[in-house]
Amino acid sequence: MKPTFRFKSAASAVALSAALVAPGAVIAQLGMVSVADAAVVSRIEVRGNQRVDADTVRSYIGVTPGKQFSNADLDDAVKRLFDTGLFSDVQINQNGGTLVVQVVEYKIVNQVLFQGNSKVKDEQLSAGVQTKPRSGYSQATVDADVEGIKGAYRQIGRNDATVTAQIVDLGENRVNVVYQINEGDRTKITAVNFVGNSAFPARRLRDVVATRESNFLSFLTRNDIYDADKQKADEEALRRFYYNRGYADFQVVSSSAELDPATNEYTITFTVQEGERYTFGDVSIDSAITDVNADTLRPLLKTQPGATYSAKDVEDTIVALTERLAGSGYAFAQVTPQGDRDFNNRTISVVYSVDQGARTYVERIEIRGNDRTRDYVIRREFDVSEGDAFNQVLIQRAKRRLERLDYFTSVNVSTQPGSQPDQVILVVDVVEKATGEFSIGGGYTTGGSTGGGPTAEGSITERNFLGRGQFIRLGVGVGKNTRDYNLSFTEPYFLGRRIAAGFDIFRQTREYDNDYKSELNGGTIRFGLPITEALSTQFAYNLTQEKYKYDDDCETDDGVFDPSCDLAPQIRDAIENQSPWIKSSVSATLTYNTIDDQKNPHAGIFSTFAVEAAGLGGDAEWVKFTGRGTYYKTLSEEMDIVGLVSAGAGHIEGFGGGDLRVFDYFRANDRMIRGFDYDGFGPFDPGTGDHLGGATYFNASAEAQFPMPVFPQSFGLKGAVFADAATLYGNNLAGATGTDMEWRASVGASVIWASPFGPLRVDYAVPVKKEDGDDEQNFNFGISSRF
User: Which residues pair with 507 in a beta bridge?
Assistant: First the structure.
């Protein structure tokens, strides 16, 4: 009888292999005896297998009858059998001329079941566990799944969820795995505190971090969930905030999250050290490249002496200089900022050193963590690819682009050594986030040509459709006398280039003052092109069919206009002689955007200028110019007061002998001036008082926004005071009056709410300058969108 080899795991096999000594030696520690260095068997017998075919087991052994084998061969055979994941135990022994392989198969998982879960669906849990039906049962895998399920509940704010695994033996070597879940209560964040801050109040800093304190609407926003990764991201957000406002020595000393088991609530505390506030001192460029003249690069500097120190301005300068150098043929040029602090004067002088840099190439780009987003969606944000010169500036710009996509909770780009000294591997680690949104909103208008009343809006949006980076939105708006339906789709990289191509389809119906109705159906095909990081343009073709008809109250049984209906003759003419009406136009829009935060702006400019020309077929023949710009500036960092000023203008002019219809003119609205009704001022018909719109408008507004006292910051309430001014004039329709430039003005106050349903605001405005025939509307409640 030859000695037996029995291993409970592959690790035991490795230990034995390392411990084997001379042939025939006794290994007391393992209680086993070695076979001879070389042996021969005539056959291999497999025992204990039920599902796995014996020939399959023999194929893993690697020992052939009639040929010599050694201890190392048996060692390798055992490891290979364990590595299959099919067996929980393996025993090999030699009995005369027979090699006996005794195996114990893992039990087969028949079903994986979840019980007690309602907040996380079965489909989500099934996708996250490793134990699958028809796979081998492994206790280690089940234990890992238990921790994975707990992690899924931590992501939705249920840190005290408990999970136990029950194994139900079905006989015939089959089992059911049942994960019993107690979901527990939501783990809330009772407070987000800051220690050591003096330059900025805690309320302002809470607006910087993504973690929010819990309130009664947190179950909708889900932004009060504690997450260690989010906390680290909040630390980085605080650093960027301070570094961009002059505090170059700022540090996050520590951040902690303390859980109170009694209340199941976290208290988040950030301890910071602000340091002194600096301005820029001398700023210069030192070029070590002979053919590069530093003076020619000076216009690219974003940092100016005397300005408040900003890390972002330094980064933008590095990017601008590096791009200019790369465009001049210096692909490996490096720009390194060197700062010199003057602690007495609190200045930082910066020298941008330009040198040739090491010749390093990108060997490959590895992307990890993108379970949903396709690889190419991430790769296309990089201006470098495999084989290109490695450029750290372009890598960091790609990182910022990926972050702006808003597909990921975190993006990290690191490097690893490549296969050659001059090669590097880019590693992109991402953590994906939900990109689908369902939003609803509402409002109430107190009058207007559509009769006023409640309004409601809803939309479904997916920013990363099918993981392809495509944008799709379906929206519906309903009012007392209005209906809006729209569908939008955008492919951000059309034909593999950084060209955003898309289309919009819409349908609008309106009932005006119980006099007439309108129905607009149309669509747009558009192409957007980036010019710089802040400047972009869009070209579009637009096709719209407009239909107008009298309301039942203004139409006789014979289908003609009822003279008793008080409706302006200019509107009657358009309904009877210019409906249906086809507008076929092309348009171009230029947008400049440096806003720091699109949802809660504190600084920057957002401006647009558009021109639209109708006459490419269809009935309309005119050209229209519109423009609007808004400038944001923080007036008080300590009190979080933000000021904004905006101005806009528009003009429409007929050409080709075509006259403008009454429906072509600009109509007064709350984006021009608040405190007046929709279509509530401007040129009008003296007989009926109906406003007819104007060919030209100008408007301006000034506003100051501030946190609402008493209410917690996490609730998202702000107040505002404003002053508006506007004029709408010019109308060539017969009988129109009030066509001269006359300014209107109003003052008012607002409540702005960053609600889970989208940004909402209530405005109360009082006209302080108006004309006879103007219609007022003091209250306005609806979706907030001042861009």
Answer: 485, 521
> What span, in angstroms and rounded, lies between the C-alpha atoms of 444 and 670?
13
pLDDT at residue 164, as a whole number? 92
pLDDT at 332 over 70: yes
DSSP-assigned letters across all residues of 424-471: EEEEEEEEE---EEEEEEEEEES-TTTT-EEEEEEEEEEEEETTTTEE
Name the pairing type of β-strands 87-95 and 43-47: unpaired
Q: Which residues pair with 287 in a beta bridge?
A: 354
What average pLDDT does the segment 247-255 reach? 94
| Candidate from 71-75, 304-308, 674-678 with smallest mean pLDDT | 71-75
What is the domain partition of the chain in residue ranges? 4-105, 108-182, 188-273, 279-355, 361-432, 436-783
User: Strand 43-47 vs strand 98-105: parallel, antiparallel, or unpaired?
Assistant: parallel
Give the residue from 690, 625, 622 showing the smallest Cα distance to 657: 622
**Which of 152-161, 219-228, 412-421 has the highest mean predicted lDDT (pLDDT)?**
412-421
Identify which of 378, 387, 468, 469 has the alpha carbon closest to the alpha carbon of residue 427.
Answer: 378
Torsion of CA 580, 573, 774, 646, to 10 degrees: 40
Q: Which residues contact 337 (CB under 8 A, 6 or more apart)?
A: 314, 317, 318, 350, 351, 352, 353
Query: CA-CA distance, 129 to 166, in Å (whole number)?
Result: 15
Q: Which of 169-173, 203-207, 225-229 is predicted least confidently? A: 225-229
Per CATH, the homologous superfamily of domain 188-273 is membrane protein fhac (3.10.20.310)
Alpha-carbon span 438 to 664, nearest angstrom = 34
For residue 561, pLDDT beyond 60: yes
Q: Which residues contact 517 (CB under 8 A, 6 or more apart)?
A: 509, 510, 511, 548, 549, 550, 551
Cα–Cα distance, 540 to 537 (Å, whole number): 10
Regarding the domain with residue range 361-432, which homologous superfamily does it belong to in the CATH classification?
membrane protein fhac (3.10.20.310)
* CATH placement of domain 436-783: 2.40.160.50
Q: How many CB atoms lie within 10 A of CB 484?
A: 17
Task: Read off the pLDDT of residues 474-529 as tens digits, 9 standing for 90 and up.
Answer: 999 888 888 999 999 999 999 888 899 999 999 999 988 768 899 999 999 999 99
CA angle 624–625–631, rounded 5-degree value = 150
